[in-house]
Amino acid sequence: MRKLKLHINMSLDGYVARPNGELDWMTSDQDDKLTDFIHSLIDSSDTILLGRKMAGDFVNYWENVVHNEPNHPHFLLAKKMVDTPKVVFTKTLDKSTWNNTALAKGNLAEEIANLKKQNGKDIIVYGGAGFVSSLIKEGLIDEYHLFLNPTAIGNGMTIFKSLDRTQKFSVIQSRFYPCGITVLSYKPKSDLTEQYNE
Q1: Residue 111 half-sphere exposure, CB side, CA atoms within 13 Å?
Q2: Chain segment 73-110, per-residue pLDDT in tens
Q3: Which phi and psi angles does 195 have, rounded to 5°?
Q4: Where are the alpha helices (DSSP H) in 69-117?
Q5: What is the pLDDT of residues 167-184, one digit of tens each?
Q6: CA 58 and chain centroid, separation
């Protein structure tokens, strides 16, 4: 079965965006090794999931790079983002206004279960914060790849506040990169695994 992977940037104090969604605190001068890891995550996936609130900015940003900035340092990544099919979860839209993008309007857990059953590579989610919070609450994410930036912002959006229980994780790996970002990769423990290990 396909896995659902989360790739998200996070500040040292646990926020994924400022209160109004600003991402100006993120480390922009990524090194080659980190870029390679980012590519490996998208290369192992053939579907991108997005929440409606984030979808417009996400799609428009990467399409602008592909169509207007051939010398952009992340042009190859942008092409992958544009070429990979996307699914936007929404309760308000009836028609997708973005290229290569379908809408999912049903029950979140059922829609994700159906996607995981399909043949293909893994599925990757980039956000936004509210959508990711919903996935976490329902226990739908199989791998967490948290890109910890060397910045504290004091206040902002979080992704774990929707949890109504303690969630434990197993470490997949942790890697420090020269640009200052540490990637913490985890998989959630099931209740059964937790009981066995306690």
Answers
A1: 17
A2: 999 999 999 999 999 999 998 988 888 999 999 999 99
A3: -65, -40
A4: 75-83, 108-117
A5: 999 999 999 999 999 999
A6: 11
The Cα 56–Cα 149 span in angstroms is 24
Question: Distance between CA 126 and CA 67 in Å, rounded?
Answer: 22
Q: Which residues of 138-148 are buried (b: 16+ CB within 10 A; e: fewer)?
A: eebbbbbbbbb
Among the listed residues 173, 160, 87, the one whose alpha carbon sits nearest the alpha carbon of residue 123:
87
Give me Rg for the CA atoms of the chain. Answer: 17
Both tokens of residue 172?
């997949």
Question: pTM for the full model?
Answer: 0.92
Q: Give residue 21's region: left, alpha or beta (phi > 0; psi -120 to 50).
A: left
Q: What's phi and psi for 8, nearest 5 deg?
A: -145, 140
What tokens appear for 63 in the block?
């399409």
Structure tokens at 60: 């428009």
Residue 154 falls in which region: left (phi positive, over 0), alpha (psi -120 to 50) or beta? left
pLDDT tens figures, 108-131: 999 999 999 999 999 999 989 999
Residue type present at position 15: Y
